[in-house]
Write the structure tokens for this entry.
Amino acid sequence: MIWQTTRFRIALSRPQVMGIVNITPDSFSDGGSHPDTRSALAHCERLLQDGADILDLGAESTRPGAVQVPVDQELARLLPVLREAVKLGVPVSIDTYKPRVMQAALDLGADIVNDIWALRWQDTADPLDGRAVVAGHPTCGVCLMHMHGEPRTMQISPMEGDVLPAVSTFLADTAQGLRTRGVAAERIVLDPGIGFGKTVAQNFSLLARQEELLGLGYALLAGWSRKSSLGAVASPRPGSVGTAGQHERMAPSIAAALLAVERGAAVVRVHDVRETVQALQVLAAIK
């Protein structure tokens, strides 16, 4: 299977590791760690040295309770880093839901639009539509994610019951909507949206049954890295009571990435690139 993107045809014959680059002051795990262009680019280079296949740049936090950032502010954070990142020789993904940001990033050579809103969000004061932006580009890749609700409130009123049928139907319908606009299937990757409007039990149910989503006919991306659901089930020390903090979630994150790959994920989006790459090498050795 291939993921067609702006500049690269990414072979998915082995799992691809997407390294997270948060150019934000308030992302849930590493917000404020890369506050300027120089430090963000240095982080990009470290991730590549650690074995990242794809860089995912985000200039607005979408953690639970996050407040929306104006387009101009997001662009001011993102574009200086993107201008240099596209020179690093690897696919560059842009984590955004705003059509104006998508368009500006693609104009600078970005390869992938990674959208938590699955191209549904639209500025009421701007007629530009994310689906039109992606469909209007000849080859860019896109990742469509399932989200219940929106970031500010999604964990206050999460989904109820068995979530896999709703997630599957949403992803199938959204992908088909892009197909009818002329976007080739090999440009589309799907993400079940771990942690976006779902309970801990529902997130793990999606992981357990992830292979059922392969029937939709698209490659899957799994984004478990440092998510609160991992903290909820992983105590800091064996036998202790309490949840693992964000920086105690490396081992659970790696375990979830491996389980996702074993259940068919083609791409894993992670903070801890070097450790995830090493774990995937061990998994590959037994195949």
In short: The domain at 2-286 is CATH 3.20.20.20 (TIM Barrel).
